[in-house]
Model the fold of this input.
Amino acid sequence: MRFSLSEIETMSKRAARGAGLPWGLAEEAGKAARWLTVRGLFSAERLACILGRHDRHNHADLAPTDLDGVWQATSGGLCPLIAGTALCDIAADIADSRTIELGETREPLWLAPYVAGAAKLTGAVISIAWDDVIVTLSDKGEGIEGNKSALMASRTSGVRCQHASQLNAPTALTQESARIPAVPTTAWSRLEALAQRTYAPSTEASRLSGAGAGLTDDN
Done:
């Protein structure tokens, strides 16, 4: 199945909301999905896994318990959607050379769109590193060094986020919309199931007030 950037962003946002994330975080998740899609890195399966954890856990258990020291979650790994938003909130501190250490983190690649936003906001170059891969982000583009296969790690024991001196080896990640890869039907269906929760159930009154004649005979 192939979808437009807008469709992927909207579905990701609604699925995140359906999994219980507040609308603000859900909107940011949709933007993150779009950012990754443009760069050929979006995975509906990975997003479904992230949101599946939110469906099973209290969201507070997937967030950093303390923003001082190493960031840790109480339930088996930080959620990148929450941790990424927290990194954006302290973008100025990171640009001012504060290094942030994250402990166990799920789907670390999903931090990249948020860090890219922090870099754009501050005008700084910011890097995130895990498992022998370094991703540098700035308002001029992105760079990847090291083990590119580690980009798609489902989890990592730690991530370091810090100010970088320069954007090393810029990588041409941006793809044309026409080259957006197909999305597996099963993964899309998982997102759809979550998104359906955001729609109010129809009632007899709402059905009668919608399109069509209802009980009114116009003949």
User: Anything to note?
Assistant: Residues 23-38 form the longest helix (16 residues). Residues 5-171+183-197 form one domain. The radius of gyration is 20 Å. The helical segments are 5-18, 23-38, 44-56, 80-89, 91-95, 112-122, 185-195, 204-209.
